[in-house]
């Protein structure tokens, strides 16, 4: 079996409950769901993080996620909303190092959520951060 569990699932060497199978993208149920219907969308080509992800594969992952999230609302599952979540790196909570987009169906009071306090920086701090990020983006030619 492949070292990467998601690559093994893509190859058919590990079990998964498949929701969508396209030439470049696979969607399957998360085995540790936050809510009923929680699933993952992965590119079939391995990329450990966003920096390694081919932009075309990324576009296909998000397009599939959008289609599935829209379809979820017409399913038999109780769904009032959907969160899309992608963790990139250990500090962001990534546990499996193959890019994957979580689709988490939501209902009022389901208990799932991001627990953080929003910061309130002043405009000078926001402008300085924007300048630093703009320079980084421009250096990558994005």
UniProtKB/TrEMBL annotation:
Domain of life according to the entry: Bacteria
Catalytic residues in the record: 100
Protein name stated in the entry: HIT family protein
Organism expressing this protein natively: Rhodococcus coprophilus
UniProt short sequence motif Histidine triad motif, positions renumbered to this chain: 98-102
GO biological process, one term: nucleotide metabolic process
Domain HIT, first and last residues per copy: 5-113
Gene Ontology terms for molecular function: catalytic activity
Pfam families membership: HIT
